[in-house]
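stage 2 :: seqdesign
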């Protein structure tokens, strides 16, 4: 059979249900069942699984206990509210007050604590997580067999698996670690989101190296404010979550984290701050990449190249090299491996159809990231800069006006359009973005255009491009669908941009 969700290990020993009950400190059910897997998704239950029936916003996972039983579940982990429904389904239950908070530790036990056998490097921050994870994985490949877990994809060796979210749920994450171990993987680079830290997705993980890139307003629909957001990220830099921190002190929150972290911290500065342990020097930013020298705490001088354009990617590259050095790799070997990374999907990804202008797609979907990308492209653009940008629906509404202002201020042509409007009216989102654009004084503002249809917006930007110009389509990056009114339609910025360029040439 084929099952939904990430892969599971092939060889797994059963864990007695009584042992799991003892771990939880609850009375063992009258059952001799052995558990060979765990999942929070009733559709993904396999014979021998422990089904984690969690309370949800609209329904309780225990409502699907009968379905789980039919698929061969051995038992259910649930809360008191779900216990009666589990009993009605005829399954033994492990009942705790907060099953989500115990799910990770049980998953680690069931799969034999696979993370202990992997070198784990976890990257958190607002911007740069995905790029840094790819760069770290590239450096690790010089010495080890690797895995990658993040927003774009999961990789086990050369096998690629589509990601559902930045950091998988604890049940899936521990299964992935187990598969990696089973296939001989030695090291994994992974993104760690604030949601993952708050919701327990990385419970039972202790990262060998935890990396902090930066912090700026994001996910304010989930966090109560920047302090709450910072505290969520700071959880990663405690002994329960990591052994060593690598922290960017060019960022104000990074400087604070370096002082407040309760694990040893190594600092880095792409701006060359003399107090940082590692810093970038002799930086030369080019249109496609950048070169620089890494200066280390013991007098190291490492020749480095960022395989991606922009000063912010110098910071991401430095973060990767420092984290690899902190993990015990030779810094120059690590830097060479990072430089050889062929690119990161949807991160300043070039679209080249032989046109006389530069065209890229980028995932920038928050104000700071948009500003950084546009500033970086401005430096390497001889002519004009044409930017396409939208804001997602059902997400942080506070960033829409600032993002509209940023693209209007830093681009010669700001084409405002839809991102993933989801359940919201696309025109209502655009109206707020347009307010932001209108707040920029006329003499500082580029020409602003508005298209509800994203493909039309991309075509409009391409139509304005002349030799020496740059077209950047921002916001969705690697995504291959567009969510409009609950329906996800195929849409890949890279392909739509490519087709628009081909039509313009024709």
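stage 2 :: out
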């Amino acid at each position: 059979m084929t099952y939904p969700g990430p892969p599971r290990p092939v060889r797994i020993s059963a864990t007695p249900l009584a042992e799991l009950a003892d771990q939880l400190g609850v009375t063992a059910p009258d059952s001799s069942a052995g558990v060979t897997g765990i999942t929070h998704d009733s559709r993904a239950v396999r014979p021998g699984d422990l089904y984690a029936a969690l309370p949800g916003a609209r329904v309780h996972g225990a409502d699907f206990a009968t379905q789980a039983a039919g698929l061969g579940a051995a038992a259910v982990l649930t809360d008191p509210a779900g216990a009666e429904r589990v009993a009605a389904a005829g399954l033994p239950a492990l009942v705790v007050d907060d099953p989500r908070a115990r799910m990770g530790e049980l998953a680690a036990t069931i799969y034999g604590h696979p993370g202990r056998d992997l070198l784990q490097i976890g990257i958190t921050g607002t911007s740069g997580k995905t790029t840094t994870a790819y760069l770290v994985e590239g450096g690790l490949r010089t010495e080890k067999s690797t895995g990658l877990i993040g927003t774009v994809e999961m990789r086990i060796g050369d096998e690629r698996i589509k990601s559902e979210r930045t950091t998988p749920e604890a049940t899936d994450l521990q299964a992935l670690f187990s598969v990696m171990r089973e296939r001989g993987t030695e090291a994994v680079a992974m993104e760690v989101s604030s949601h993952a830290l708050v919701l327990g997705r990385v419970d039972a993980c202790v990262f060998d190296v935890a990396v902090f890139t930066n912090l700026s307003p994001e996910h304010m629909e989930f966090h109560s404010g920047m302090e709450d957001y910072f505290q969520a990220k700071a959880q990663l830099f405690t002994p329960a979550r990591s052994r060593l921190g690598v922290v960017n002190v060019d960022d104000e929150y990074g400087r604070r984290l370096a002082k407040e972290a309760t694990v040893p911290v190594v600092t880095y500065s792409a701006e060359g701050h003399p107090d940082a342990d590692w810093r970038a020097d002799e930086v030369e930013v080019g249109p496609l990449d950048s070169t620089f020298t890494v200066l280390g705490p013991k007098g190291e001088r490492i020749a480095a190249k960022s395989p991606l354009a922009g000063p912010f990617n110098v910071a991401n590259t430095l973060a990767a090299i420092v984290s690899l050095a902190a993990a015990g790799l030779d810094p120059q070997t690590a830097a060479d491996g990072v430089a050889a990374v062929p690119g990161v999907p949807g991160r300043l990804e070039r679209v080249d159809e032989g046109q006389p202008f530069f065209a890229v797609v980028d995932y920038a979907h928050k104000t700071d990231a948009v500003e950084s990308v546009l500033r970086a492209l401005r430096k390497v653009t001889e002519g004009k800069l044409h930017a396409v940008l939208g804001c997602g629906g059902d997400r942080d509404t506070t960033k829409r006006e600032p993002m509209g202002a940023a693209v209007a201020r830093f681009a010669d042509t700001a084409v405002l359009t839809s991102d993933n409007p989801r359940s919201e009216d696309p025109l209502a989102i655009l109206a707020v973005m347009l307010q932001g654009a209108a707040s920029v004084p006329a003499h500082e503002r580029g020409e602003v255009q508005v298209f509800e249809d994203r493909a039309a917006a991309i075509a409009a930007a391409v139509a304005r491009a002349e030799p020496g110009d740059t077209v950047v389509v921002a916001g969705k990056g690697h995504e291959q669908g567009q969510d409009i009114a609950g329906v996800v339609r195929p849409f890949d910025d890279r392909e739509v941009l490519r087709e628009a360029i081909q039509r313009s040439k024709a």
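stage 3 :: structure notes
- The chain has three domains: 15-110, 114-339, 349-505.
- The CA atoms of residues 315 and 432 lie 32 Å apart.
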